[in-house]
Design goal:
Layout (H helix, E strand, L loop, with lengths): L25 H13 L4 H4 L8 H23 L11 E2 L5 E2 L15 H17 L16 H29 L3 H17 L12 H9 L3
Antiparallel strand pairs: 1-2
Amino acid sequence: NAFSLVSGSRSSKTFKPKKNIPEGSHQYELLKHAEATLGSGNLRQAVMLPEGEDLNEWIAVNTVDFFNQINMLYGTITEFCMESSCPVMSAGPRYEYHWADGTNIKKPIKCSAPKYIDYLMTWVQDQLDDETLFPSKIGVPFPKNFMSVAKTILKRLFRVYAHIYHQHFDSVMRLQEEAHLNTSFKHFIFFVQEFNLIDRRELAPLQELIEKLGSKDR
């Protein structure tokens, strides 16, 4: 059960509130559609734009969903991701990330992984909460720069997966959550591949895993 890991004492560790899509809204219907097609087990098909739907809206709904999934996954391993164990935000020895959001922090700063992920998730949450960027009301148009904002969000969310896989996979295994992590990541990768949302270079830290996940679906 994908949701069993929110029960119990660990739920308090999830450090960002879940972003809810309002029930009864069109986006809520789209989310329900996404969940239903995921159940079919064919992820390549599940990520495709449903007939007659708006691409921006489909990307918006799924971006919110990925934020919630990653928030939950990272929430289960926060006790293992500390300043002492992860003094830099890395994805293996070859990839290190420095934080900048372009507004509050313009020059990239080197910081610990928990600090980086906190900055990152707070930044994503602020974007998702901005009604001018992610309109939740029907008929309110998406802004012209929506696609570039969505791409930046997804690029950054990928880094959390990359950090979990490279630095905390043993903890994920111990918690018996690898199937959940793999399914979530596979869904994420198929989605960004379908709409070409993340530059290949950005995906390099998990390239082998991405190829492995993709080859099973040919």
